[in-house]
Amino acid sequence: MKIYQNLTLALFLSFSLGCAKKEQTAINPPLVPSPTTTGSLKDMPFPFGAAVNVSLLRNNVQYKELVIKEFSSITAENAMKFNALHPSETTYSYTDADEIVALAQANGKRVHGHTLNWYKSLPTWVTNFQGDTQAWENLLKMHIQTVVGHFKGKVASWDVVNEAFEDDGTYRNSIWVQKLGADYIARAFQYANQADPDALLFYNDYGHEYNAIKRTAILNLVNNLKSRGIPIHGVGMQMHTRYNQTDANITSAITSVAATGLKVHISELDVVLNPDNVATLSYTTSLADLQAAKYKSIVKTYYSIPKAQQFGITTWNVTDADSWIPTTYSRPDWPLPFDRNYVRKAAYQGILDGVK
Ligand code: 9MR
């Protein structure tokens, strides 16, 4: 009987292991061999961070350990957005965001807050909100001050306003502009500053490297805020870019933003390898090397701006397995410095080489 039981157990185990192995093979086919890396992101001369996903931190030990081991700064990918923190008018929900902050604190990492104001990721109570201008102003102020107050002393910096411009350089016709006019942006910074005078406050957007018209609009806004004494301390350049973006474009973007004199955060970096959405594309050594070269040149240019302005670089997500790109664009892609087996890619070495 005992032998029989053991045999059943052995059969069961070998069957389950076989399935697990098969599944493993199906999910993680052999990848391009990873190079040996010398050095660590932790030793970069400025903070190097990633946007993190709270459920992966909670449920995936390998992911969590990688985050702890590799990064000195953390941004919540979604957990500090309006709909996550403030799901109904009278409810704030801090569980996920607090968990990220606690992990950062326990491991000596900086936390960058993303984002106090955006046209997306709003709860329906906001999009359906009925009220006059004063009521909308109160809503904006209350949200910003409650959230910044909650994280005071724990979150070092905030993206105060995210993506306020259209590609043609006009203000996006967001619910905020409709209800409050474009100068709500200035007041958003003032509200955040009142709630935590020590927090560094950023205007965050994308496209600086491929759209000079939008970039000029962003720089005009930022310079205008600065000249009016509005408490803005930095500019976030998302830099969702591609392996074949020209170095010249990236350099003009970084240097023109640095010319504001404010801190510069490359805040959502990823370098896609499949910008043309080729469904059959595969990851090859040559693509990996081109990507490494692009990461290197971005980091090198960034490292050449004045030291005091180097707020840091943050990648948007951690590994190719959790990048927002493949799901959003329904295509294979490999935008990050770690592969989907959580192994350092050539891009990782490219980043390290950028500061050599
Ligand atoms: O990666 C984020 C994705 O999981 C969310 O569904 C989406 C909407 O909240 O936002 C993504 O992150 C965006 C960031 O907040 C702002 N810049 C663009 C990022 C990618 O879309």
Short structural description:
This protein has helices spanning 2-27, 54-59, 61-70, 82-85, 95-106, 124-127, 133-150, 175-180, 184-195, 212-227, 247-258, 285-303, 324-329, 346-353, and strands at residues 48-52, 73-76, 110-117, 157-162, 200-205, 234-237, 240-242, 263-272, 310-315. The protein has 356 residues and is α/β, with parallel strands linked by helices.
Task: Describe the protein in words.
The chain has 356 residues and is of the alpha/beta class. It has 2 domains: 1-30; 35-353, TIM Barrel, CATH 3.20.20. It is built from 14 helices and 9 strands. The chain has an 8-stranded parallel barrel with strand order 1-2-3-4-5-6-8-9, surrounded by 5 helices. Helix 10 links the parallel strand 5 (200-205) and strand 6 (234-237). Helix 7 (133-150) runs parallel beside helix 9 and helix 12 (285-303) packs parallel to helix 14. It is globular. The chain starts with a helix and ends with a helix. The structure holds ligand 9MR.
List keywords for this structure.
alpha/beta; binds ligand 9MR; globular; 14 helices; 356 residues
Number of strands: 9
Name of the CATH class of the largest domain: Alpha Beta
Give the proportion of residues in helices.
40-55%
Helix tally? 14
- Rg computed from alpha carbons, rounded to a whole number of angstroms: 22 Å
CATH fold topology of the largest domain? TIM Barrel
